[in-house]
Specification:
Layout (H helix, E strand, L loop, with lengths): L1 E7 L8 E7 L2 E7 L17 H6 L8 E4 L2 E4 L2 H19 L4 E5 L7 H5 L1 H8 L4 E3 L6 H11 L7 E2 L6 E5 L3 H4 L9 H10 L3 E5 L5 H4 L3 E3 L6 H16 L11 H8 L4 H8 L3 H11 L5 E5 L1 H4 L4 H14 L9 E2 L44 H6 L8 E5 L3 H4 L3 H10 L2 E5 L12 E3 L20 E4 L13 H12 L9 H16 L11 H8 L4 H12 L15 H5 L5 E5 L4 H4 L12 H11 L12 E3 L15 H4 L7 E3 L1 H7 L6 E5 L4 E8 L7 E3 L45 E2 L1 E4 L1
The protein binds iron/sulfur cluster (SF4).
Length: about 750
C-alpha cells in the first residue's frame, strides 16, 4: 500500500516542494509537487535522491568513538559520556576559548541548526566560533549591516517582476540560486526575457546561466568591485540630476569614493571596455525595473564586502532598492511583525568587538574567519584551540589551504563531530554523533523564507521515525554537557529556555501584537508539541501573518501550515525598508570609513594590468553537487568526470596541454593534479576547478565517493587572502601555475 507525503526539499536554498511515495517502509518515488504554491512541480536531480541518501549504507546510524585510531560504533549514552569525560576537563583547565565550534552550511537547512545551535553557542561562550559563512556570504551580511544596520536583511532580486537583471559571480542554473530563494530559477530567468526584459551575466566563465542570458561579459576574476564602482561613477557623472539621494548621506563622499574608478580606468583591469560599462550604467539608470544580483564569485574575493555594498548602492541611486522589480526584502512568516507608527532604526551594526588571538582579525557577527582556524590550533599560548566541535561541516574540504587545517586537526586534544558521514573532517573526530536523515526529521525553512522572492511558507512533518535522538536533542545534550550539567541531564532544560526566550521576544516587542501578554501563556499553549514544532508554532503565531494566539483567529499557526501541505503563498514582495532598517540614524547609511579605505586600497591596484601569462583559478558549481557532501550517491556522480580543470584553448596551446591530459596546478600554498578540459567557455588567463572534491583520504567511510574522488581545490586556495571587512576567504582569483604532468 502506497502512502504519499509532501515536503519541502531541504538540500538547497530553492525550497522545492516534493511528492514522496512510500511503499513497504521505503521510498518508491520522489517527484516535484505540482501543487506546491512556490515550485509548481520543479525539481532538480538532487531532489529525487532523498530516499537514496536515507538508504545510503555509509550514512551513520549510530555514534562512533575513535579507539586506537579506528572508529567503532557505540551507543548514545557511551558517546555522550565520552564527551563529558574528555571535553569538559579541557574547557575547565584551559578556558572557554580552548574549545572551538565550526558550523557548516547544512545548519541553515535544518530546524535544529536554526534554533538549537544558539544554546550550544551560548554554552560554549568561546571567541573561537567559526562557520561556513566566512567561505561564503559574510560580505553580504556586512554590507547589509553597514547600509541598513541589519546584517540579516539581505535584499533579493524581485525576479518575477524585474525588467533587467544584472548577475555577477552567480550561476543559478547550476546552483538553483543562493541568497535568493526561487525554485526554478532558470525558468524565472527565461521568463524575464520572454516578457521583454534583459539578463546580463558578468562572469569569467560562460556558465549555463550566461548561456541563457542576453549578454555575457567575461570579467577578470577579483575585479568585480572596481567594475561596480565604475558603474556608480558613470551614473553619478551622467545622471546625477535624476538621482534621489535623501538616504545616501553625502553625495560628495560617494563621488569621492568612486572618483578613481572611471569606466576608462577600470577597462584594462576588469577586461570590460569603457563603452560597454557606460552602456550598462545607462541601462540600469534609464528608469526600467532593474536588479543587481551578486553572489559567490563576487563575495569570495579580497574585496567581497565592497562589491556587495556597491551593488546595493547601485540599486539605491537608480531607484531600484525596495521597489517592485528591483532589490527587495521578503517578510518571512516567522519574522518580527512590523509595528505601525514605529520610527525606523535601531542599534546599528558593529564588528571588531574582539579580535582573533594570533593575527588579530576582527570578529564579525560573533565569528572569526574560518581561514584562521588552523593558526589558532597551531599556535601555543593562552586561548589556544585544543578541542573542536563541528556540526554538519567539512572544513577539511571547504576552507582555504585545507592541508594546513587537516594537519592542525591532528594536533587537537579532542574533537566531536555531528554529521551523517565519516568524511574528510569527521575522520579526525574522537566522537561522531549522527543526526537523523532528512526524511526522519520535520522541516521548516527559517533561513530561506527570509531570502525568498515571494512570501511563502511550508511545514513538512518527518516521513520516517528516527532510531536515535533528534538533531535538536543532540545539540541540546551537547549544550548541557558543556554547561556542566552532565551527559544525563534532561534536554527539556534547553527546550524550555529556547521557547521561553522566543515567547518573551514576542511579548516584549513594544507596540507588537502580543505586547503585554504573559509569555507563559504562549509557552504553555505549545507545550504539547515536539520541541522543533513548539518553536515553529511560537514564531509563526507571533509573526506578521500569525493568529497572535487568538487575537487574529484566521491568522497563521503550525496547525494551519499542517492543513496546507503544498504551502501557503502570502503574495509578492512589498516595499518594507522601514521594517528592516536598524541603523542608529533610522536611514540608510551609505558612507563608512571602512568602505572608503577599502576602495582606496582597490584603487591602487587599477594600474596593475594582467601580467604576461597570468593564470587565475576560479571555482564553479554543478547541479548534481552540493558542496562536498552528496558525492557518495552513485546516481549523482556517475557518468562523465566532472572534477576537471577548465582551460582556454589559447592557454592550453601556450602551456602545451592536451584535452584529457593530467596537469599539475600549483599555487603559493599547494599543488594538485587534475584532468584538463579545454573549452572556450572560459576567459583566457582563467582556469576553473569545482570545489568539494578530493574524497581519497584514509579513514573515511564514503564507498562511492572514493571511486570518483576528484581533487580538492582548496589545497590551492590561500588562507592568507581575506576580505578584511568581513573575514571572508578569497576563494576565487587565486594565482596558479600549470604544467603538463
Ligand atoms: S533545486 Fe534545490 S530544493 Fe529544489 S529539488 Fe533541487 S536540491 Fe531540492
Amino acid at each position: 500500500m502506497d502512502s504519499t507525503h509532501f515536503r519541502t526539499c531541504p538540500l538547497c536554498e530553492a525550497t522545492c516542494g516534493l511528492e514522496i511515495t512510500i511503499r513497504d517502509g521505503s521510498v518508491r518515488r520522489i517527484r516535484g509537487d505540482r501543487d506546491d504554491v512556490f515550485s509548481n512541480g520543479f525539481i532538480c536531480p538532487k531532489g529525487s535522491t532523498l530516499g537514496t541518501l536515507h538508504d545510503d549504507p555509509d550514512r551513520l546510524r549510530r555514534p562512533l568513538i575513535r579507539r586506537n585510531g579506528v572508529h567503532v560504533e557505540v551507543d548514545w549514552d557511551e558517546a555522550f559520556a565520552e564527551i563529558d569525560d574528555r571535553l569538559v576537563p579541557i574547557r575547565k583547565q584551559h578556558g572557554a576559548d580552548a574549545v572551538a565550534l565550526y558550523l557548516g552550511n547544512p545548519n541553515a537547512h535544518t530546524i535544529a541548526g536554526a534554533v538549537f545551535g544558539r544554546p550550544l553557542i551560548q554554552a560554549l561562550a568561546t571567541h573561537n566560533l567559526y562557520s561556513a559563512s566566512t567561505v561564503d556570504q559574510m560580505p553580504r551580511h556586512v554590507s547589509s549591516g553597514l547600509l541598513f544596520g541589519n546584517p540579516g536583511a539581505m535584499a533579493v532580486p524581485d525576479l518575477d517582476r524585474t525588467e533587467y537583471l544584472l548577475i555577477l559571480g552567480a550561476d543559478p542554473v547550476e546552483s538553483n540560486g543562493s541568497l535568493c530563494t526561487a525554485p526554478d530559477f532558470p525558468g524565472r530567468i527565461t521568463s524575464i526575457r520572454q516578457r521583454g526584459g534583459q539578463v546580463i551575466v558578468v562572469d569569467p566563465r560562460r556558465s549555463r546561466t550566461a548561456a541563457i542570458a542576453d549578454e555575457h561579459l567575461p570579467i577578470r576574476p577579483g575585479t568585480d568591485p572596481a567594475w561596480l564602482l565604475a558603474l556608480i561613477h558613470s551614473i553619478l557623472r551622467d545622471d546625477a540630476h535624476r538621482i534621489t539621494l535623501e538616504h545616501t548621506g553625502s553625495l560628495e563622499s560617494l563621488r569621492s569614493i568612486v572618483a578613481p574608478f572611471t569606466p576608462e580606468a577600470v577597462a584594462g583591469f576588469c577586461g570590460i571596455d569603457a563603452v560597454t560599462t557606460e552602456r550598462i550604467a545607462g541601462e540600469l539608470s534609464d528608469g526600467r525595473r532593474a536588479a543587481v544580483y551578486t553572489r559567490i564569485g563576487t563575495h569570495t574575493a579580497r574585496h567581497g564586502t565592497l562589491s556587495s555594498w556597491a551593488a546595493d548602492v547601485l540599486c539605491l541611486i537608480t531607484d531600484n532598492l525596495d521597489t517592485v522589480g528591483g532589490m527587495m526584502w521578503p517578510n518571512p512568516c516567522h519574522g518580527r511583525p512590523e509595528v505601525p507608527g514605529r520610527a525606523p532604526g535601531g542599534r546599528g551594526f558593529r564588528t571588531g568587538r574582539w579580535a582573533s588571538r594570533v593575527s588579530e582579525h576582527p570578529e564579525v557577527r560573533g565569528e572569526l574567519p574560518v581561514a584562521i582556524l588552523a593558526e589558532e590550533i597551531e599556535t601555543p599560548g593562552t586561548g589556544q584551540v585544543r578541542a573542536l566541535i563541528t556540526v554538519a561541516g567539512n572544513p577539511a574540504r571547504s576552507t582555504p589551504d585545507s592541508s594546513r587545517l587537516t594537519a592542525a586537526m591532528e594536533q587537537l586534544e579532542f574533537m566531536v563531530s555531528v554529521d551523517i558521514y565519516l568524511n574528510e573532517t569527521t575522520r579526525h573526530a574522537d566522537v561522531v554523533l549522527p543526526p537523523p536523515s532528512s526524511l526522519e526529521k520535520s522541516h521548516f525553512d527559517f533561513a530561506f523564507y527570509g531570502l525568498s522572492v515571494r512570501n511563502v511558507a511550508n511545514y513538512s512533518p518527518a516521513v520516517f521515525t528516527p532510531d536515535g535522538p533528534g538533531e535538536h536533542e543532540i545539540l541540546a545534550r551537547l549544550a548541557l554537557i558543556i554547561s556542566d550539567h552532565g551527559p544525563q541531564a534532561d534536554p527539556e532544560l534547553i527546550y524550555g529556555l529556547v521557547t521561553s526566550t522566543l515567547a518573551r521576544q514576542a511579548t516584549d516587542l513594544p507596540g507588537g501584537p502580543l505586547e503585554g501578554r504573559d509569555p507563559e501563556e504562549l509557552t504553555s499553549s505549545v507545550a504539547h508539541l515536539d520541541p522543533p514544532e513548539r518553536c515553529i508554532d511560537l514564531m509563526v503565531r507571533s509573526g506578521p501573518y500569525g493568529d497572535h494566539f487568538g487575537d487574529a483567529p484566521d491568522g497563521l499557526s503550525l496547525e494551519k501550515l499542517i492543513d496546507h501541505p503544498h504551502g501557503i503563498d502570502f503574495g509578492p514582495l512589498e516595499p518594507r525598508l522601514s521594517g528592516i532598517l536598524r541603523t542608529t540614524s533610522g536611514t540608510i547609511e551609505v558612507i563608512h570609513d571602512a568602505i572608503v579605505d577599502d576602495a582606496a586600497v582597490l584603487a591602487t591596484s587599477l594600474e596593475a594590468a594582467p601580467g604576461e601569462g597570468e593564470l587565475l583559478l576560479v571555482g564553479r558549481r554543478h547541479v548534481r553537487s552540493n558542496n562536498s557532501w552528496m558525492h557518495n550517491l552513485d546516481v549523482l556522480v556517475r557518468g562523465r568526470e566532472r572534477c576537471t580543470l577548465l582551460v582556454h584553448p589559447d592557454d592550453a596551446e601556450r602551456l602545451g596541454l592536451l584535452d584529457g591530459q593530467q596537469a599539475l596546478v600549483s599555487s603559493r600554498v599547494g599543488q594538485v593534479e587534475a584532468p584538463v578540459e579545454i573549452t572556450d567557455d572560459i576567459r583566457p588567463g582563467v582556469v576553473s576547478l569545482p570545489h568539494g572534491w578530493g574524497h581519497d583520504d584514509p579513514g573515511t567511510r564514503l564507498g562511492v565517493a572514493r571511486t570518483r574522488p576528484g581533487v580538492n581545490s582548496n589545497l590551492l586556495t590561500d588562507g592568507a587572502v581575506i576580505d578584511p571587512l568581513s573575514g571572508n576567504a578569497a576563494l576565487n582569483g587565486i594565482p596558479v601555475a600549470i604544467r603538463p604532468r
